[in-house]
Amino acid sequence: MSEFDGDKTYQHFTANRVTPYMGAELDGIDLTRPLSPSQADELRDALARFQVIFFRDQEISHDAHKDLGRLFGPLAIHSAVAGIDGHPEIVAIHADADSKYVAGESWHSDLSADEEPPLGSILYLHTVPETGGDTMFSSMYKAYDALSERMKTYLEGLEAVHDANPVYHALFKDYDKRYPVATHPVIRRHPVTGKKCIFVNSSYTTHIEGLSDEESKAVLNFLFDHVKNPNFQIRFRWKPHSIAFWDNRAVQHLAVWDYFPEVRSGFRVTIAGDKPVS
């Protein structure tokens, strides 16, 4: 059993669980102000413990947004989407009546085709539709634990290719540009908690090395369907000036685009991670 299982009492905020296995809304902390070392330590513990943490009524500036991310590590520059003017580490997340698509409409782990996928992402939305526009999260710990022991044994040691080119070529039609491609374990071990989790996703993972195309497709399609189980998931309902901060190593997420033509707008910071290991 990991030290990050179960609840914990924090000095600087209250953590209200969303489900028994994932997610917590943190009350009593002001992210618009610089945080003390002890506050930062408690936030790091909460992210590892709950996999995704949420905040309400946090009207943060771009600098405060970046400062929050840097408490967890260096900020990553998106490998496909340019940052906003003056802040290359911040990506605008925006949809309105003119949008032809929105980011993250399928289950995925952010930038998993990078050689070192992100530790996590912090999404701040200042403008949201009256209803709709939720973000869904699925726990890859829970998904792994639900596998049979024989399937766990089979998947152990397998590696899969993650390729960003099909994703971004379809969006941007820039077929001459090359995007990251990387090979990662199908089952990775979280570097902080030590827990095992599934690390393939339907957006970026193209095939499993060492298997025939038919075998790879069958195994991946099983895992892609498996992580959609609602028993592994939570659904976050946005309000203006809310923040969702997810551990990219332990969860997948999906943005629900059910609010067209209304506006959903904000900014995202991504924190650099490390090479996944089994």
UniProtKB/TrEMBL annotation:
Transmembrane segments: none annotated. Keywords: Dioxygenase, Iron, Metal-binding, Oxidoreductase. One of its GO terms (molecular function) is metal ion binding. One of its GO terms (cellular component) is cytoplasm. Residues 17-269 form the TauD/TfdA-like domain. GO terms for biological process: sulfur compound metabolic process. It comes from the Bacteria. InterPro entries: AtsK-like (IPR051323), TauD-like_sf (IPR042098), TauD/TfdA-like (IPR003819). The keyword Acyltransferase does not apply. Belongs to the TfdA dioxygenase family. This is TauD/TfdA-like domain-containing protein. The lineage of its organism: Bacteria, Pseudomonadati, Pseudomonadota, Alphaproteobacteria, Hyphomonadales.
